[in-house]
């Protein structure tokens, strides 16, 4: 958690929601599915010998 300071120098204790931190894991999972599927398709095309989609 990142601590912020108020204008008078005290710590601001409010909890802040970090959108990028919350979306990082689902985004990585979706990217893994997309690129993993793409890689499997390319490997299958190479093994079977042509663009048969």
Structure notes:
The model has no long low-confidence stretch (mean pLDDT 83). A hairpin with a 5-residue loop joins strand 1 (4-5) and strand 2. The chain has one helix and two strands. By secondary structure, it is mainly alpha-helical. It has a domain at 21-47. 0% of the residues are buried. Strands 1-2 form a two-stranded antiparallel ribbon.
Q: Report the sheet-strand fraction.
A: 5-15%
Multimeric state? single chain
* Main sheet record: 2 strands, antiparallel
List low-pLDDT spans.
none
Q: So how many helices?
A: 1
Secondary structure category: mainly alpha
How far the N terminus sits from the C terminus, by CA atoms, comes to 47 Å
Morphology: rod-shaped
Tally the beta strands. Answer: 2
Mean pLDDT, to the nearest integer, reads: 83
Any descriptors?
membrane, transmembrane helix, transmembrane, two-stranded antiparallel ribbon, 53 residues, mainly alpha
What's the short version?
With 53 residues, the protein is mainly alpha-helical. Helix content is 57%, strand content 8%.
Outline the fold blueprint:
Layout: E1 4-5, E2 11-12, H1 19-48
Antiparallel strand pairs: 1-2
Keywords: Membrane, Transmembrane, Transmembrane helix
Transmembrane segments: 20-40
């Amino acid at each position: 958690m990142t601590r912020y300071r108020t204008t008078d120098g005290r710590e601001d204790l409010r909890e802040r929601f970090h959108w990028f931190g919350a979306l990082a894991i689902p985004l990585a999972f979706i990217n893994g599915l997309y690129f993993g599927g793409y890689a499997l398709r390319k490997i299958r095309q190479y093994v079977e010998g042509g663009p048969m989609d």
